[in-house]
Write a structure and sequence with these properties.
It is a single chain. The chain has 350 residues and is an alpha/beta fold. The protein is built from nine helices and 13 strands. It folds into two domains: 209 residues, HUPs (Rossmann fold), CATH 3.40.50.620; 92 residues, no CATH class. The strands form four sheets. A five-stranded parallel β-sheet has the order 3-2-1-4-7, sandwiched between helices. Strands 9-8-11-10 form a four-stranded mixed β-sheet, with no helix packed on it.
Amino acid sequence: MKRVVVGLSGGVDSSVAAYLLQEQGYEVIGLFMKNWHDDSVTISNECPWLEDSNDALLVAEKLGIPFQTVDLSEQYQEKIVDYMFKEYEQGRTPNPDVLCNREIKFEVFMKIAESLGADYVATGHYCRKGIIEKDGNEVFQLLAGKDDNKDQSYFLCQLSQKQLSKALFPIGELTKPEVREIATKLDLITAEKKDSQGLCFVGKISLPTFLQQKLSPIQGDIVEIPDDLKAFVDYSEIKVAPENVLELARPFTYEPNQGEVVTTHQGAHYYTIGQRKGLHIGGRPNPSFVIETDVNTNTVYSGQNDTHPGLNRWALKVSKEGLLFVGLVKLHTMEICGRSLTPFLMLCGL
């Protein structure tokens, strides 16, 4: 009998995942990960870890499976939290959940599972795993979950082939209503529990409070850039063609004298490109969005409407280190998360 360790989060999805694995004949062990100790930045009643661990324990008892709690807060601090601070400080917006899956759930947690004799690690993600053969070898694909409204394959996009080979996603073929229906029939305590929001296995946090632990507030200006800036006009005149890819991918640069100061902020590192909420810009005829941040000058640049040219480009430049193709089938028609995408241009470390 194959042994599976399930990351029981205290939510309905991982609860049903554990049950389905039992039904499939696996020997199932439930593990709850405690990743955070500082409750001062966690929003009250939003996924507190103690309540979640108790719910996970009750689910394990109901299913009759062994249960343990593992404290991974030290590794989480080092691999996720410190990384977050570094990225925000440099003016970039990280996705801690993507990193958490790669570095914690399917790395540190997986090693713990293997020490318990596990053949696989399972989670309650809404995604699927496919297997194809290429050059005589198995290639594991990361596929979208059947529930388009809950698909979570994006959050697993950086898993390696080795990690995917050991991963199981039992609820990937189900919709959320179907998962809740199973939990209700089993009378699980998590059946009607609200979905958690926020950081991986931590809960919903107050991001400004969280960031202020290391990034001090510094007042600066929010400068609105008009949509008829000469740089935008020049860009619109570039022919959209592969031979112009480098020019199309070149980022815009802004100076405060190119626009109008519309309000102030408390730190450019608190903002992200595309952000609309929390700008506190009043008196504008249209919604405002962040189009760029400059942490060196502590300036945030905004533009009106999501059609602003500062938010829309024909091409982007990315480094090879930032790319990971999981189960790539074709070069120009990529299958990502089970969906066929045909990008106009593919840039790989230009």
